[in-house]
Design a protein that fits this description.
With 166 residues, the chain is mainly α. The protein has six helices and two strands; from the N terminus they run H-H-H-H-E-E-H-H. A hairpin with a 2-residue loop joins strand 1 and strand 2 (111-117).
Length: 166
C-alpha cells in the first residue's frame, strides 16, 4: 500500500461523502456560512473542488484548468464532475511519487511563485481539503444537520481495510 496514494483515496472518499450529504440541503442552507469559516456551504464545496484541480495541476506541472464559479452555486452535477476530475488528478500526482521532486507553484493566497518539495505541496493539498470539510461540518451542525463521519476509521471500515479478528 502506497501511503500517499492511500491518503488521497481517503481524501476522495471524504469529499464524496460530504458532497452527497450536502445534496439534501436547501438552497438557503447552501448559502449559509458561519463566522470563522471560508464562506457558505456551497462556496466552500466549490472552492475545495477547484483547489483539488489546482494542487494536482501544480504537482503534475500542468497549466490551470477551468474553475467553477462559487457564486452562484453551479449545482451538484458540475460540482461532482469537478471533484471527480480533481480527485483523479491528485491520485495520479501522488502515484508518481514525491521523492527528491520539486514543483514550481504559483498561488493566489498568498500570491507569488515558489519552488518547493513536492511532498510539502501534497501535505498542503490534504490539509486544505480536510480543513474545509471540517468547516462545512461545523456549518451543518449549526444548521441542525448531522454531518457525515469523515475520519480515518470511517475510511478504514468503509474501504474494507479493517477485518474482525476471531
Amino acid at each position: 500500500m502506497d501511503l500517499i496514494v492511500e491518503l488521497f483515496r481517503h481524501n476522495k472518499m471524504m469529499n464524496d461523502r460530504l458532497m452527497d450529504a450536502c445534496r439534501a440541503l436547501t438552497d438557503d442552507h447552501l448559502r449559509t456560512g458561519v463566522e470563522g469559516t471560508y464562506g457558505s456551504v456551497g462556496a466552500t464545496l466549490v472552492h475545495t473542488a477547484n483547489s483539488q484541480h489546482a494542487y494536482a495541476e501544480g504537482l503534475l506541472q500542468r497549466g490551470r484548468g477551468d474553475r467553477l464559479p462559487e457564486d452562484p452555486f453551479p449545482g451538484f452535477e458540475a460540482l461532482a464532475e469537478q471533484f471527480l476530475s480533481g480527485n483523479a488528478l491528485l491520485e495520479e500526482a501522488a502515484a508518481i511519487g514525491v521523492q527528491n521532486r520539486t514543483v514550481t507553484v504559483t498561488g493566489d493566497d498568498p500570491p507569488g511563485t515558489w519552488t518547493m518539495p513536492a511532498s510539502l505541496f501534497l501535505v498542503q493539498a490534504i490539509n486544505h481539503a480536510t480543513e474545509h470539510r471540517s468547516q462545512i461540518a461545523t456549518i451543518l451542525t449549526q444548521l441542525g444537520v448531522e454531518p457525515p463521519s469523515m475520519d480515518g476509521w470511517t475510511y478504514f471500515f468503509d474501504g474494507g481495510h479493517m477485518t474482525d479478528v476471531d
